[in-house]
Amino acid sequence: MNETIEKKPAKIVLRELQDKIAQDAWDAKQRGEKVGWCASNFPQEITTAMGIPVVYPENMGAAVGAKGGGQRMCEYAEGMGYSNDLCSYSRINFAYADLKHCEELEIPFPDFLLCCNNICNCMIKWYENLALELDVPLLLIDIPHLDAMTCDADRVKYIRAQFDDCIAQLEVITGKKMDLSKLKEVMEVSQRSSKAWLRAVGYMSAEPSPFSGFDIFNNMAVACVGRGTIEAAEAFEQLADEYEALVKEGGSTFKGEEKYRILFEGIACWSNLKFTYKTLQSRGINLTASVYGPAFSFLYGSLDELMAAYAYVPNSNCFERELQLRVDDAIKNRVDGAIFHMNRSCKHWSGNLYEMERQFREKTGVPTVAFDGDQADPRCFSEAQYETRVDALMEIMEENKKEAKA
Amino acid sequence: MSGVKELLAALRAVSADPRAQLDEALSQGRKAVGVLPYFCPEELVYAAGMLPFGIWGAEMQANESKRYFPAFICSLLHTALELGLRGALNGLSAIMVPICCDSLKGFGANWKYGVGEDIPVIDVAYAENRRIAAGEEFTRAKFRGILARLEQIAGRDVSDTDVAAAIAVYNENRAALRAFSAAAAKHPEAVSPFDRCAAIKAGYFMDRAVHTKKLQEITAVLQTMPEKLWKGLRVVTTGIIADSPALLEILAENGIAVADDQIAQESGFFRTDTPVTDDPIIGMAKRLGVIEGCSVLYDPGKQRGHELVQLAKNAKADGILWVMTKFCDPEEYDYVPVKRMADAAGIPLLAVEVDQQMVNYEQARSAVEAFTEMLK
Amino acid sequence: MGDVLTMGIDVGSTTSKCVILNNGSQLIASSLIPAGTGTSGPQRALDAALEQAGIAHGRLAAVTATGYGRNSFEGADHVVSELSCHAIGAGALMPGIRTVIDIGGQDAKVLRVGPSGKLESFLMNDKCAAGTGRFLEVMARILELDVSELAAMDEKAAGKVNISSTCTVFAESEVISQLAKNVDLHDLVAGIHASVAVRTAGLVRRLGVTAPIGMTGGVARNAGVVRALENELGVSISVSPLSQMAGAYGAAFYGWNKTKE
Fold first, then answer.
1. N or C terminus of chain A with fewer C-beta within 10 Å?
2. Is the confidence at residue C165, as pLDDT, over 90?
3. What distance in Å separates the CA atoms of residue A356 and residue A370, rounded to the nearest whole number?
4. Averaged pLDDT, groups of 10, chain A, 406 residues long
């Protein structure tokens, strides 16, 4: 007897897994367990191994932005006195912390905060304020910005000490004990997840790419919140297999013909996702290189290597290493051009963007354009500006293609 | 009183023309290393026999810097980079760049590719998790590495004795600055807000030992003067930098005296001494562990706010003036909880936004005038 | 004769306003010239007010200057910030008012006024044109309207077109693209007014809303903006026919008060 079990596509599995992880945190809160708010690049190995539920305010900011609540929440935070110069994720979160309500998405309130500044130092200021506002303990793993191509032993030692210290403090706060064999297990599963996720996004190098690049922005959530779980590892492996199959048959989930391949530099404009996507897709432009989604993968063997892996988060590397990531990606994935998102919310990402764009152009030889936008505040984005610049880039890519043929 | 005027004028002249100080040092065969804010281990530069040269930007338009930094980066970094790009800092043997805020993290690369390798960047990392042993150890290790680099640049060895001697000079300077600040607070009729700032700021461009002597002279005279009743307002300032001549002039015009400060450029430097320890570099690391009141040092209990309220109470200030550096994230995050603390303590607080590229101060003037009218 | 005549002159960036009060309460002259600091505007406003009152300059017991150009105005007995003057003027024109919203040509201010009419605290806008009279001028020009026509257009709006950009240049581009889509002009104007209201409301909330609220400054004459602000804040907002003159009024009152000392 042949039983055909309808297998859900990987992107659905990932979506459901993301929802389940969120629901688990709510359920835990209901049961009276301690739940934390956690920085996006905090070593999840700790919380996963200890079975401590955490939720991610940065992810909430992205989701609220994507669902159209960014402006409203940002305006509320500005009414509290927060400058509109500040990161829109944090403004949305401050509004939520005060209002205790958000129609687009809600997360359980925290009993403790886990901060890590490998993503940026604004995290520290944001979480300082939350700790005061919500009157909960704050744990920080400080990961100093790298000034060399590799992470030095002093940094590893310092990060490791804070890692251990965090575990000790979490044991006291939550009453849960760290089991080192469980930690080892989680580290292995995380490797499996990370490798699978990288394999999946790696298929972008195929011509045509088997998927629409903007799908990365949807699928990456689990890479952030769930990569320590078997379910995530399996889902990413399924995703990678699906892409592999598509490559074999020359198919793609990208709608229409892939006429141009581009690298998209920066965080997605969550509040303007549809428009930024459609403007490209309708012109046959597919995103086939990005360091942002793949960033949520951490490859390491030993614990010390884990510490270093968390220091290699884009954008915590030195400029040269950051540049190399983009150049290697663009060349491997054979892009025709690149779009640089000058994100008003993120000074860390924007501070070297101009020079990065120049050197990127020099090293890859492909044309680039930059545009003004924001990750979750729609007021900083202009449709007319974006369209004009995309058109200009397309015209140059078109010319280049003609010249190449001639 | 005329003695004080002349003495203050000398320090004003230094602050008005930092380049002259740099040139003088270079002409005497003394090397100089630029020091960007905040909390770089400048004692080590001094210990190596070089002049630590503070770089706090300048009142100027930044144009070239906008090839590197987007417009929404603070003017302190824009103008600092601009000075470098225009060659105004040529002669420096290196520049120290810390990583304590997101904008500073981008400065090193922009300098490297914009200004070039003639003034190489010395990356300064120290622990934000500054109170734990591992944090202190990390800072110590990094500062040791920086010392080795400075030895190369200076072309000589630097012993722990040299470092301890430099720390002694710096601690003496800090004490002199504290005494000056206290004396100036008692004599606003003799020391205008601009003079106070200029006298403090001059230390960033001079040999600290020389600066100490000059400050001690001024303080000695001030301490002999009878205290007069000050009819105007007394404020405590807070922020990163409050050296805009236009703003300081507006304070003076409105009869406002600076009774104390929580400004990174000012008391941020002198409020806390470096502890004296066997390994002097451990002392330097420990100092970072005890400093409070700066928005770029990890502050989980928001001690900055508590300290500010206490300073205002101690100084019997009429209010707090927050000199808000435009585009400064750490300050903007702090503003909300700290303002609440000031409100809860019943201390009026006015925030005035400043930018070193600003030429029109009318809005600041209106705000300060209204604040003064309100508090009378 | 016990009449004490005082003059208040508000030298703004784009307009000069002048008021003469008798005994600090009776309005005997008011003038507005659409030229501000650095032009002949202030002098013309002063001359027009004196002519209206039918008096010579010497009859004035005091002249008080306020506004952006107050420090360069010659012949002032007193110089007071426009924040204090708007607080005083609003208090006189709309007694009992506790929060004053002043949207002028180039900036916006929110003032909290104590029960006795004294300025308690205030906030001013960021150095940005969005949310000021300038923003409305730019938008009106795109729509080929005069600023004075905007309120009437708004009245006929069935809905409002969302204009979200905080940057005037981006907002301009938004409005143009909406025009190209042939949206209803009335709804578009309503959207522009809502945009100003949202910006201003943010400033008000930062200071804290204390009713009753009044509006001063030139933009107070735009009923559409006033309505949009009322919607945004959920409170009613008083406007005086002399709202645009509030600064000058307050200055004249200040001068009268000083003569009693």
1. N
2. no
3. 11
4. 71 96 97 97 97 97 97 96 97 98 98 97 98 98 97 98 98 97 98 96 96 94 94 97 97 96 96 97 97 90 97 93 96 97 96 96 94 95 90 90 88
- Give the distance from residue B68's alpha carbon to the nearest chain A alpha carbon, in angstroms: 6
Total-model pTM = 0.92
What would the CATH number be for the domain defined by C97-239?
3.30.420.40
Q: For the structural domain made of B31-158, what CATH number should be given?
A: 3.40.50.11890
Which residue reads 């703003």 in tokens? B247
pLDDT digits (tens, 9 = 90+) for B108-167: 999 999 999 999 999 999 999 999 999 999 999 999 999 999 999 999 999 999 999 999
Contact C201 A79 (CB under 8 A): yes
- Residue C77 CB-density burial (10 A; 0-12 exposed, 13-18 middle, 19+ buried): middle
Q: Quick check: C166 and A380 CB within 8 A?
A: yes
For residue C165, the chain A residue with the least C-alpha distance is: A379
* Residue C121 C-alpha, separation from nearest chain A C-alpha, in angstroms: 14
Question: Which two tokens mark B167?
Answer: 């720390």
CA distances from B58 to B72, B99, B130, B327 (A): 17, 21, 30, 16
Architecture of domain A27-174: 3-Layer(aba) Sandwich (3.40)
Q: List, for residues C98-141, the tens digit of each pLDDT value.
A: 999 999 888 899 999 988 778 888 888 856 667 888 899 999 99
User: CA of A374: which chain C residue's CA is closest?
Assistant: C165
Which stretches does DSSP call E strand in C34-91? 60-66, 78-79
Q: Which residues of A touch C173 (CB under 8 A)?
A: 382-385
Give C86's contacts (C-beta < 8 A, 6+ positions apart): C100, C102, C109, C111, C216, C217, C246, C247, C250
- Mutate which: A71, A74, A75, A344, vs C, most C CBs within 10 A: A75
**Domain definitions of chain C by residue range:** 1-94+243-261, 97-239
Q: Which of A79, A81, A382 sits opposite C170 (nearest CB)?
A: A382
Indicate yes or no: CB of A348 within 8 angstroms of CB of B105. yes
Beta bridge mates, A141: A116
Q: In chain B, which residue's Cα lies nearest the Cα of A156?
A: B138
Residues 97-156 on C with a CB inside 8 Å of A are: 126
